[in-house]
User: Fold these one by one.
Assistant:
Number 1:
Amino acid sequence: DAEITQSPRHKITETGRQVTLACHQTWNHNNMFWYRQDLGHGLRLIHYSYGVQDTNKGEVSDGYSVSRSNTEDLPLTLESAASSQTSVYFCASSGGDGMNSPLHFGNGTRLTVT
Amino acid sequence: AQSVAQPEDQVNVAEGNPLTVKCTYSVSGNPYLFWYVQYPNRGLQFLLKYITGDNLVKGSYGFEAEFNKSQTSFHLKKPSALVSDSALYFCAVRGVGRRALTFGSGTRLQVQP
């Protein structure tokens, strides 16, 4: 079955370090998204991509970057981790033009910045 | 800008009773509306969507949602709650021309035996 896999599931890092969270999907979806989930805020969009070499900023993109070199992967990089980036991060994907399609989510990465 | 409001942080209901989880939205143009459920330590799972057509949408696990354009609402309902329905529920909206979803803050549903 097709799936979307995030790694690692848990990560602890120190302030100022660079961290990369992996996302890999086997749906062959062209649309991929990164969200963060925080209590009281629901899910907020960090970055998204509509295809290879395409990346766009979401509503909370400061301090984060993504790159899309193939269809399957959209890694999220925290350039210099800050305590405010302690959160649960979800990757999602959707197919086609994305309008009628639901998002398929990974199981998340819990990141703690100390 | 598009937005979603879920006015209740938590909803408590007894098993066997009907449940409603409320959602209102704001978006330009016709909305694409979704409900998701999240169980502990898991990602979000798609329940149902409204794109166009009938105002009552049926989804997974016996859930349904009622779209009301004049009230800009998309409330999630189930005729008879189960203890296993206890989870976190998110409403989401997608405006015309956008592929990303905007989510509400979530409502925790607690079904008591």
Note: The radius of gyration of chain A is 13 Å.
Number 2:
Amino acid sequence: GAVVSQHPSRVICKSGTSVKIECRSLDFQATTMFWYRQFPKQSLMLMATSNEGSKATYEQGVEKDKFLINHASLTLSTLTVTSAHPEDSSFYICSAVDRSNYGYTFGSGTRLTVV
Amino acid sequence: LAKTTQPISMDSYEGQEVNITCSHNNIATNDYITWYQQFPSQGPRFIIQGYKTKVTNEVASLFIPADRKSSTLSLPRVSLSDTAVYYCLVGEPRGSTLGRLYFGRGTQLTVWP
């Protein structure tokens, strides 16, 4: 089946630094990827839609200058949390859409802790 | 977007059948109903999708009445490993569109020995 790899699975960074999270579709091409954030005991919140070769579309209330998204190839999208603060600590999950059948596959998530 | 309402939590015992109902009164004609499962610190996993009547796969069944204003996910003979959060989503079908998926609160299912 389709596999989406997220890296790193866990990251701890200091407040004020930036951290990059990668989302890769391993065995299919994904023209569209989605980024979600999930706080403890809460549901997934869609942050942005990442389209290969174009600018990401952000959901209302999500700061595009803080959460930089790059979708440079059909198998890779990256989310960079810039100038991270403790309130950015969360579980970040990506989802990739297989361009051949439009099936959605989620990554295993990245636990970000900002100290 | 059709809003969904699910019970916040449910409890069951191993070997029992579990039915989780989702209400979606404002479902649109083109909307499908999709269920995902999520374990702690993991991404959601697709379980089943349907449009009307009944759909069955190797892990679950999905029952959708004629008015489509609700749906029921049925898990036969649950085990401890079925303890997870289950999300009901209503929208464009998985497999034919690039629509965004919006998750509701989900149902925490806890299976006891």
Note: The first strand of chain B starts at residue 9 and ends at 13.
